Every structure is written in structure tokens, then in C-alpha cells.
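Reply to dn_fold:

You asked what the input looked like. This is it:
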Amino acid sequence: MTDHDSPIQLNLSGGTLAKQIVSAGDGGHWPIPDGTILASGVRRMAAFAVDVVIVTTILMVVTRRQVINAWNIDLWTSPDFHYALAHASVVLIAHWLYWRVTGLSFSRSLGQRMFGIAVIAEDGSGMTSQMWDRRALRKLLYLLPVLNLYFGAYDLARISQRHTHQSNIDLHVGSIVAHADSLPPASRRHIR
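and this is what came back:
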């Protein structure tokens, strides 16, 4: 008899079949630590909605409701469209700052904290300042009318299709979003 590779492979490493497939893959993805629960698209979307409500409410109070002109179609089509552009810029800058500052301070936004999820680097370490900058900047696409429907639906589909539950933003930045309490203590130490 000649030696040949058997199509049947015995797995001696233990764990569920899904975890074995993920850890055996040579696609360069991080191994999922035992017990880690990745955040679903629905939970992430709900946290995003809470974040938008928080930032928009603060802007409405601070600007005495003037920031609502960022969504005023009549103002956008008038000769005074630069006012709408200025308000839209304030909205985008405020959201970018919010996601960056809360990310650096808590390793998650307040909405993500409310839903018990956290953002970490693929290797389980804390995210760097540059990673938070890129992540916050890319999340601004979800605020642009009409484009937000496309990018939101596309990313929700990708989150549910990928075994890592990573959105395109996560893949670009090198992050994962998981339930904070399910992370190993070493990956959780920087999360507040």
C-alpha cells in the first residue's frame, strides 16, 4: 500500500466545529478566544442609532435647534446653501469627535456601552489613536442621506455573512466588535 493524504481529518484540538474552522483557516484572521461573543449587526445598528440621538440632541441644545438646517432641502437648493453646508459640517465634525473621543476614553461609544459591546483590535489589544480616527471617519458615511441606506444595508449584510462579524470598516481598520463581558480579561482591561 502507498501512503496518501486521507480526506478525513481527525481533530484533536477540541472546541466547537465552528471555532475549529475559524482557527484552522489560513486567511490571516485572528483566532476567536473561547467564550467570545461577536456583536450582531442589529445590536451594532441599535448602538449607532443611540449615538446619533445623543450627538444630535447635544447639537440641538447647543445651537438652539439651528443645526436642523443641515437637513433642510429648501436651504440646500437656495442661494444660501452655504448655511446648510456649514450646519452639515458641524454635524459631521461633532460625530467624528464623539466617536474618536469616546473610543479613546472607553474603547467604545456610549451607545455601544449601553448595549454591552466593545471595539478591540483584531489581535485583542486596544485600538490605537489612528485606528479610532479611521474608524470614526468611515462611520460618517452612515450619516449622509441616501448613501447611508446603501452603506448601512451593505455593511449589515457583510456583518451577517462573515464568520468574524466584521463590517467593511472593521476590515479596513483591523477591528472586531464583541460583547464586552465575553472578552478574555487581557482584552478587556482597557474597556470602560
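The longest helix spans residues 81-106.
Hope that clears it up.
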